[in-house]
Write a structure and sequence with these properties.
Blueprint: H1 2-15, H2 20-102
Helix pairs in contact: 1-2
Length: 103
């Protein structure tokens, strides 16, 4: 879009009935204006990209935190179940050994 505007401006300046000096001044002024417009657009886009990056980064961090919490909770739940089952089986084995000794 900026390139199209620059080309249109250049053609308009070149075909206008002005002296060479005046034409060069117009070209220089239009070039400066277009450079400023391009710089402004670049800054707008850069700001928008940074905002989106920050938003996405924050969302990913939040989601990762939730996943880590869920995994930790599930791990603790299964660890407790395994500990309880191990204690049960250990008691059953001790009881069986005791019963065998008593016979």
């Amino acid at each position: 879009m900026v390139a199209g505007a620059a080309l249109g401006t250049l053609v308009g300046v070149l075909v206008a009935p002005n002296s060479g000096r005046k034409t060069r001044k117009k070209i220089k002024a239009k070039t400066r204006d277009l450079k400023e417009q391009a710089k402004h657009k670049y800054e707008e886009v850069a700001d928008k990209v940074k905002e989106e990056y920050d938003h996405v980064s924050s969302s990913i961090s939040e989601t990762a935190g939730h996943v880590a919490d869920k995994v930790s909770d599930e791990f603790d739940k299964y660890k407790d179940q395994i500990s309880a089952k191990t204690a049960e089986e250990t008691k059953a084995i001790k009881d069986a050994v005791k019963d065998q000794k008593e016979k």
